[in-house]
């Protein structure tokens, strides 16, 4: 069923009785060409691009809960391409281009909003750093505008410009940055992959990975064994646990990253804003809630819940940047299990086990990377060669020293 304005109107006239389920609920088959472990944004995108770009449709996505129950539904929905380092810069640029055509490609409203992102700076040194980043973004083919204090005051008059400790000197404006609806992204990819014949199997926990003579042969699940020629591990914060089933130890840590949302308010924040003197970022959702977050909880954990000291830290940063936020009531908070690599950049690579691929280490960049992550992993699985924009996301870079030192802020890198 193709979605359209006419179909919405027609269904409204007939009591909405003609809609079909967005995707099937198939039982797992005995064997597939490709099994993807993880039914979040990255796993679902990989399945869709395997089918769409490479014609590989004998694919199963295995999710131990329901589709979108992990980090794809536990983030602050920011989409951007303002990375500085070669390797990351071209990858996120490619991802943003895919975001901009995603709704048409999926025939699904993921509520992508190009509202613009502004990174504030508060010193001359920060201005120089952001000017350099902006020039790198322009050289990559993306957009960047260096704003002075007056420009920022005109665009964001509600900020505290007189703060003596952290005065706002200006900002780096990324007009194509913005937000998207996180769960709608999962639903859109799921529906599109299902329409191509991919089996989306929920409530199916992987309990083992079968390896014979150095080659993956399938997986053991709570719903029985499944044979597979290729297996892609796309389990985000649970990647280390799943990789251990194949005897692998990944160079990542799992941390909790909290996010918060306030009561619904009248439109006030038109952009995505990032505070330069504290890790704080905020935007306003289509429902009116202020959505914001900050640093991860600096201890390793698999608990999808946060702690009060870090919540207080994030609230302090918000009050420092915009004291008006103190009048809003926080309705809820949540935590996502984030996979942090030592250098702060992701891993998309084949492993030493033939037919086993890994996609992990997304750090703070997981949601905005969903389209390009799926595109590049699908390319690797289908062709055996890394996609050019993800060629530096090799697993062996931690052994060779060819790191992409974006921002690795975990707590236990000495253990890797």
Please, could you describe this protein's structure?
With 416 residues, the chain is α/β, with parallel strands linked by helices. The protein has two domains: 24-77 and 182-250 and 343-415, FAD/NAD(P)-binding domain; 114-176 and 254-340, D-Amino Acid Oxidase, subunit A, domain 2 (D-Amino Acid Oxidase, Chain A, domain 2). Helix content is 28%, strand content 25%. The protein is built from eleven helices and 18 strands. Strands 1, 2, 8, 9, 10, 11, 17 and 18 form an eight-stranded mixed beta sheet that branches. The chain has an eight-stranded mixed beta sheet with strand order 5-6-4-13-14-15-12-16. It starts with a helix and ends in a 16-residue tail after the last helix. The mean pLDDT is 94.
Layout of secondary structure:
Elements: H1 5-13, E1 31-37, H2 41-54, E2 59-62, E3 78-79, H3 88-100, H4 102-106, E4 117-121, H5 124-140, E5 145-148, H6 149-155, E6 170-174, E7 178-179, H7 182-195, E8 199-201, E9 206-212, E10 215-221, E11 224-233, H8 239-244, E12 253-262, E13 272-275, E14 280-284, E15 290-300, H9 308-321, E16 330-340, E17 347-350, E18 356-360, H10 370-383, H11 397-400
Parallel strand pairs: 1-2, 1-11, 2-8, 4-13, 11-18
Antiparallel strand pairs: 3-7, 4-6, 5-6, 9-10, 10-11, 12-15, 12-16, 13-14, 14-15, 17-18
């Amino acid at each position: 069923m193709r979605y359209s304005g006419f179909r919405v109107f027609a269904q409204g006239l007939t009591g909405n009785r003609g809609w079909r389920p967005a995707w099937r609920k198939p039982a797992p088959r005995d064997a597939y060409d490709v099994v993807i472990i993880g039914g979040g944004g990255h796993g679902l995108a990989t399945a869709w691009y395997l089918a769409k770009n490479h014609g590989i449709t004998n694919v199963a996505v295995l999710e131990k809960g329901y589709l979108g129950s992990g980090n794809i539904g536990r983030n602050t929905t920011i989409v951007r391409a303002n990375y500085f380092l070669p390797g990351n810069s071209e990858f996120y640029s490619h991802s943003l281009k895919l975001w901009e055509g995603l709704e048409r490609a999926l025939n699904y409203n993921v509520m992508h909003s190009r509202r613009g992102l502004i990174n504030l700076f508060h010193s001359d040194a920060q201005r120089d750093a952001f000017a350099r980043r902006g020039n790198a973004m322009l050289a990559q083919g993306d957009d960047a505008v260096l704003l002075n204090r007056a420009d920022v005051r005109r665009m964001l008059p509600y900020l505290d410009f007189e703060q003596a400790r952290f005065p706002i000197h200006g900002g780096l404006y990324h007009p194509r940055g913005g937000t998207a609806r996180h769960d709608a992204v999962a639903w859109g990819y799921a529906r599109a992959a299902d329409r191509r014949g991919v089996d989306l199997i929920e409530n199916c926990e992987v309990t083992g990975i079968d390896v014979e003579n150095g080659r993956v042969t399938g997986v053991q699940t709570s719903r029985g064994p499944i044979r597979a020629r290729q297996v892609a591990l796309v389990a985000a914060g649970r990647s280390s646990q799943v990789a251990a089933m194949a005897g692998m130890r990944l160079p990542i840590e799992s941390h909790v990253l909290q996010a918060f949302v306030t009561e619904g308010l009248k439109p006030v924040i038109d952009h995505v804003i990032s505070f330069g003197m504290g890790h704080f970022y905020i935007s306003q959702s289509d429902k009116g809630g202020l959505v914001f977050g900050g640093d991860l909880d600096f201890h390793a954990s698999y608990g999808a819940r946060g702690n009060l000291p870090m919540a207080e830290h994030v609230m302090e940063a918000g009050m420092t940047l915009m004291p008006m936020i103190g009048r809003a009531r926080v309705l809820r908070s949540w935590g996502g299990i984030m996979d942090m690599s030592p250098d702060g950049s992701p891993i998309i690579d084949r492993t030493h086990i033939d037919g086993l691929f890994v996609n992990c280490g997304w750090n703070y960049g997981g949601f905005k990377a969903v389209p390009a992550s799926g595109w590049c992993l699908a390319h690797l699985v289908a062709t055996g060669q890394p996609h050019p924009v993800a060629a530096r996301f090799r697993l062996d870079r931690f052994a060779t020293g060819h790191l992409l030192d974006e921002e690795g802020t975990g707590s236990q890198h000495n253990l890797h």
